[in-house]
Design goal:
CATH topology of the largest domain: Rossmann fold
Largest sheet: 6 strands, parallel
Number of strands: 18
Number of domains: 2
Distance between the termini: 63 Å
Shape: elongated
Strand order of the largest sheet: 6-5-7-8-10-15
CATH class of the largest domain: Alpha Beta
Strand content: 15-25%
Number of helices: 14
CATH architecture of the largest domain: 3-Layer(aba) Sandwich
Length: 414
C-alpha cells in the first residue's frame, strides 16, 4: 500500500488503495474537494479539523484523494500546521520532503491557507518591499539589481534552489516564506528561438503566474517588440496596436501576454507588462549582427547587411541601462498595465554597420544583399511610459555603440 508517511502518525495516499485495505488508521477522504478553485473555506476547514481531532485522539491518520498528490497533501499540510502549531509554509515543506511531491496544485493550497485564516500579510508603512527577480544573473538582471538594492530587499534564488520550469509549488512556498510581494520575471531559456524554447517559456511563465496568484504577489513581466514582428514596413507601435507576432520567440511572447491576460481576467493578478525594443550593451552578444559587424570591422573584412523588398531593416535599439531604469521605475511606481519601451527612433542596419566601421577606424567595405521578402521595422511609442513612469531613454545609439565598442575592445585586451 502506497501510504506516504509525513510523520509517524500522519500520511497521504490514493483513496482506492487505502479504502480497499482498511487498517488501524482513520481515513480523511477529501475527494469531494476539487483540485482547482472553488473549494469553500468551511468545507476545507472541516476536513482539517477532522484530521487534527483524529491525531489528538491518538489515531494514525491518512488523508486521501484520487491520486494522493494535490488535495490530500494540501489538506495534510493544513492538519500538520494546526496540530503542531507551525506556519503553513513550514508544514507544506515538511509534506514535500516526506512525500517527494514537490508540485502540489496551487488552488488546493490556497484553499487550505484561507481555511486556516493565514492570509497574505500586509506590508507595514515604511517597510522595505521584498522582490524576487528571476533570471537575476543574466544580462538585464545584472544591470537592474544595482538600481534596486538600496530600496528593496532582493531575492535572487539560483536555479538549483528554485527551478521555475519544474512547477509552481516551490516558488509559491519561497514567496510566502520570504514575504515577497512582487516578482520581476526576466528568465528565458538560454536558447530562446527554438520550438522547444517556446514551450519552456510558456511553462515558466505559467508557474510564475500560479505562484503570484496563490500568494497575492504582483508580477512585472518583460516582453518585447517581437509581439509586433509579423507586421511589414515601418510602424510606430503604441499599446493600442494589436499584437501580431511570428517566429518561435515572437509567438512565445505573444502567447505569454495572452496568458497573463487570462490570469488578469480570472484572478486578482496585478501585472505590468513591459515591451522593450531590441536591447544591447556590454555583457551580451545580442543583437548578434552588432557583434558580427564589430568583429569584421576590426579584422578589416567585408560587412554584409540585408536589404529587403521594403528597404533596409531598421531597429529601435535601446541600451540596457535605459531598460533597467524603466523596470526599476515600474517597480517603484507600482504601476499595472502594458507599456511600450524604446527610443522611438529607428536606425537601419546599413547605417549601424557604417557607423561601426567609422568608430573603429576600419577600412572595411559595407555591402547589402537583396532579399525577396519584406520585414517589419518597429519603433516603440513610449508616450505612456513617459507619463506613468517619468521615464525616457537617455543613451543615444551613437553613444551606446561607442561605449559598447570600447568596453569590448578593452575586455579583449585583458
Amino acid at each position: 500500500m502506497s501510504i506516504r508517511w509525513i510523520t509517524p502518525v500522519l500520511g497521504t495516499a490514493p483513496a482506492l488503495e487505502v479504502l480497499r485495505q482498511p487498517g488501524d488508521f482513520v481515513i480523511i477522504d477529501v475527494r469531494e474537494m476539487v483540485d482547482k478553485s472553488g473549494n469553500r473555506s468551511e468545507t476545507v476547514r472541516e476536513k482539517i479539523d477532522q484530521g487534527v481531532q483524529s491525531l489528538r485522539q491518538g489515531h494514525r491518520t491518512i488523508v486521501c484523494c484520487d491520486y494522493g498528490i494535490s488535495r490530500s497533501n494540501a489538506v495534510a499540510a493544513g492538519i500538520l500546521s494546526l496540530y503542531e502549531g507551525i506556519q503553513f509554509v513550514a508544514a507544506v515543506k515538511r509534506v514535500q520532503r516526506a512525500t517527494g511531491e514537490l508540485e502540489i496544485k496551487s488552488e488546493p493550497l490556497q484553499a487550505v491557507r484561507r481555511a486556516l485564516g493565514e492570509n497574505v500579510r500586509e506590508r507595514l508603512p515604511g517597510s522595505r518591499r521584498r522582490v524576487m527577480v528571476t533570471g537575476a544573473s543574466g544580462f538585464i538582471g545584472k544591470t537592474l539589481l544595482p538600481l534596486l538594492e538600496s530600496k528593496f530587499d532582493l531575492l535572487t534564488p539560483a536555479r538549483d534552489e528554485i527551478d521555475i520550469e519544474a512547477g509552481s509549488t516551490q516558488l509559491s512556498v519561497f514567496l510566502l516564506e520570504h514575504d515577497a510581494d512582487c516578482v520581476i520575471h526576466l528568465a528565458n531559456p538560454r536558447v530562446y528561438t527554438s520550438n522547444k524554447a517556446f514551450g519552456i517559456t510558456l511553462t515558466m511563465l505559467r508557474n510564475v503566474l500560479d505562484a503570484c496568484s496563490s500568494v497575492g504577489a504582483k508580477l512585472i513581466y518583460l516582453s518585447g517588440w517581437e509581439v509586433y514582428s509579423a507586421y511589414s514596413g515601418h510602424l510606430y507601435a503604441d499599446e493600442k496596436l494589436p499584437l501580431h507576432a511570428k517566429g518561435p520567440y515572437g509567438d512565445a511572447k505573444y502567447f505569454c501576454e495572452n496568458l497573463i491576460g487570462k490570469y488578469r481576467d480570472l484572478t486578482d493578478l496585478q501585472c505590468a507588462i513591459l515591451r522593450s525594443g531590441p536591447v544591447y550593451g556590454f555583457g551580451s552578444d545580442r543583437p548578434k549582427f552588432i557583434f558580427n559587424f564589430l568583429e569584421k570591422a576590426l579584422a578589416g573584412s567585408l560587412l554584409t547587411t540585408h536589404c529587403y523588398a521594403n528597404g533596409h531593416p531598421a531597429l529601435d535599439l535601446m541600451h540596457v541601462n535605459d531598460l533597467a531604469q524603466a523596470i526599476a521605475l515600474a517597480l517603484h511606481e507600482d504601476v499595472t498595465g502594458d507599456f511600450n519601451l524604446g527610443t522611438g527612433v529607428l536606425t537601419n542596419t546599413f547605417k549601424i554597420a557604417s557607423d561601426i566601421v567609422q568608430m573603429v577606424g576600419s577600412r572595411s567595405e559595407v555591402k547589402s544583399i537583396l532579399l525577396d521578402a519584406s520585414t517589419a521595422s518597429i519603433a516603440m511609442n513610449n508616450d505612456k511610459a513617459r507619463k506613468a513612469l517619468g521615464w525616457s531613454p537617455s543613451v543615444p545609439i551613437e553613444e551606446g555603440l561607442k561605449s559598447l565598442i570600447k568596453q569590448r575592445i578593452d575586455h579583449a585586451r585583458k
